[in-house]
């Protein structure tokens, strides 16, 4: 595999494969170490199931914190890819400089803020009297590593954006392997319980961050981190473009929080903690599907943005078709796996038969709509890569709103566990709406870009030929 990809001249098929596969692997490994983290926690002697429920309460808050790295990283990298496509290197350098400053400011602010408000958040988002101690321990330690987590996540987008897909994958692999090893050592050798799992994550994030920062300060990348030349207008553009993926991730956290709260409320003292433990296992499984999807669509956004910046519509269309095909093949395979093998996944977390049976049912229910979910991810991320942030945002909000609505409504009409049907119902409905909108706006948007570039080139030629007086 090439270490550097030529986004302008390499074939689209080879670019999609070379960027999507490492990004997909990186996301999958990232999920695996999160799953292994929960697996170790679930197998802590005597308190494993309760500790797992506590970690499940922390899960959406952790995702919410991480989404700020995506807000800046993805927004900045898409904008930078467009400028590189336009051959504007100085503006690309300025975008990276402003993004690096924003990541530092966000990291420091969020660390302080979440340390102050975490207790109330945990209680409001589903922690019971039994699980609060475990959730609080994990969340306190994890928040201390927020600075490194956000920098690592955000800066990795700028590595991918410049064609270094294998280096980007290595950033994640370093953290993943470190976390898996330290999890085992801290929990089962030093017997530090859920606190050990949290410290393993923090140390892993520090190493990933150090690797990403050192690479972007090095001489191998065309666009390196610099200081100065800051601009509020550029920061606003970065946030505007990154807003859609940020809301997708942030509302994923909100949905999990709402789901946990609904399960606790309608499940009551008898089943509340059991249902949250089940939801934690099911959501861990869903991450095996959604995270590689994010890897495919997010890792290839730079192809679309770069060629859109260069007004090469045919390459953009070809990339979009191949990305969709890759996602459909992946989700179809995972749909079959979800029907046949969920028991093998569930039993790595628990040996309690009631939780095993409930989790197998939950996985089969959650994954009913994953094939049409491909359309949602590909088209929304494609529109974001083209700078159609408002359209992508509206489509994302529709999916999340419908999911929240179904999550709240279904348990009131049926039993608490029927909240699990909210996922496939919203996936299928939103895929239909998103596909319709995409087909209506995609070609028109590309045509408008071509006309804009032609007009700019025409005006530039006139300016050059115009005789000076």
Automatic annotation (TrEMBL):
Record-level GO cellular component terms: plasma membrane
Record localization: Cell membrane
Annotated protein name in UniProt: Multidrug export protein MepA
Family of the protein in this entry: Belongs to the multi antimicrobial extrusion (MATE) (TC 2.A.66.1) family. MepA subfamily.
PANTHER family: MULTIDRUG EXPORT PROTEIN MEPA, SPORULATION PROTEIN YKVU
Pfam families named in the record: MatE
One of the record's GO molecular function terms: antiporter activity
